[in-house]
Amino acid sequence: MTEVWNLPNLEAMRPSGHKWLLQILHACGEEQQAMTLMTIWRIWHAHNEMTHHKPCPSIEGSRRFLVSYLNSLLIIKQFPGSDVAKGKMVINQGQGFRRDKTRPKTRKFERQHWAPPVGGTAKLNVDGAFSMDGRAGIGMVLRNCQGEVMYAACQQVHHCSDALEAELLAIEMGVQQALQWTQLAFTVESDCSEAVNLIKRASPNISAYAFRIRVVREFLRERDSPLVKINREANNASHELAKLARTQGRNEAWIGVCPPDISVVIEHDCNPVIN
């Protein structure tokens, strides 16, 4: 676990006596305390499994379990009140268990709906979905100015590291397919502000996603396609497709027809109920 977690150096601390654990925890910060306790908890679980003649969990399996579990706790702490199941939040490792006090307080706003593109153009909506168990999926819907589906797809994603990677992949694959299935100019919409900002930022990107961001920028330049951040309520169609891919492992595409699974969403987008 020391390869991925900042665990205390027991050799340097040399804890002793019946309060050895308290001595260790006293010298740790809040996040390191959590990592230490969770590691001990997993060791105890493995001990119990062997005691009861059950297969011992693998080291890699235990590592993945603990990392995923701690990430879930960090999300709950950093994003109180958010829906963890949607997998939209990106963890700030430096922030740890502290809440982000710079985040604006939630305020009421008018619900937004999908808006059709201007005449003679198309609009591409994309979304990525990620859960802490590693499952991920992407969804994309390309529509014309009448709201008719020109192309739609959902795709399961393997070996996805986090929610941001899923969102970036959704934009990349969506734009790539849109370039293939229409000759019209098109706008790209995503509800992930971090992904949109990374792609639109003028300075070179040196993050782990640098290559993917560079590819997306090249795709967007082919038609001078603007990339726009929208609210979640205006992105329901691609969100539902991404969720299908993540939860059901679906890999499907529809050309010129509306996917049956999102027909109600598409109809609502074209005929929104005005509250």
From TrEMBL:
It comes from the Eukaryota. It comes from Lolium multiflorum. Residues 125-245 form the RNase H type-1 domain. InterPro entries: RNase_H-like_dom_plant, RNase_H-like_EbsB-rel, RNaseH-like_sf, RNaseH_domain, RNaseH_sf. SUPFAM superfamilies: Ribonuclease H-like. GO terms for molecular function: nucleic acid binding; RNA-DNA hybrid ribonuclease activity. Pfam families: RVT_3. This is RNase H type-1 domain-containing protein.
